[in-house]
Amino acid sequence: MRSPISFYDVQGIAFGILMCSLTLLFLKSAGLVTGQLAGLALLLSYVLPLNFGTLFFLVSLPFFVLAWLKRGPDFTLRTIAAVVGISLLAPQLARFISFDSLDPMVAAAVGGSLGSIGVIALFRHGASAGGGTILALVVEQKTGFKAGWFQLCVDGAIFLGAAFVLSWDLLLVSFLGAAVTNMLIAWNFDISQAQRKPAT
Length: 200
Hints:
Layout: H1 7-29, H2 36-47, H3 52-96, H4 104-124, H5 131-143, H6 147-162, H7 168-188
């Protein structure tokens, strides 16, 4: 059982929201996608007349029920806060940050690295960045299969859909960016860390 939310958690979740939002700025600016529900929302934003933030919130809604059942109200409320924060901040960042030139490989590497930092920050403070990460945490707790590796598997389905929207070169670069994110999570995060109280 986690303690009531503290300033330590608030700043960690806020930092995670910022890093995840910057990830999406890099990817969207380069015409790339990523995995999990964020990737699905990003992909849909290329073909539907809705922005990423709206789509990300809508596709995350069913997974809040899973979070409530499997991880409890505290984790669910923190995750809702993270999803709402990313949904609101990611589209707004594009109003203030633009790129005259952005190589897709650079966008994938930087975005993938920022994404791993953001997701780990949210994990460590009892939240997640959406439905896929909720499911990944549940799987890791039950089976020991690393959350990052699980997410990499789920990404395959997202990229299969992206193959009908993106060119093959952008699809490959997008996959490399998602691989960076998930490998860094797998190498740098242990699920047990999320259960530890911070030192005081």
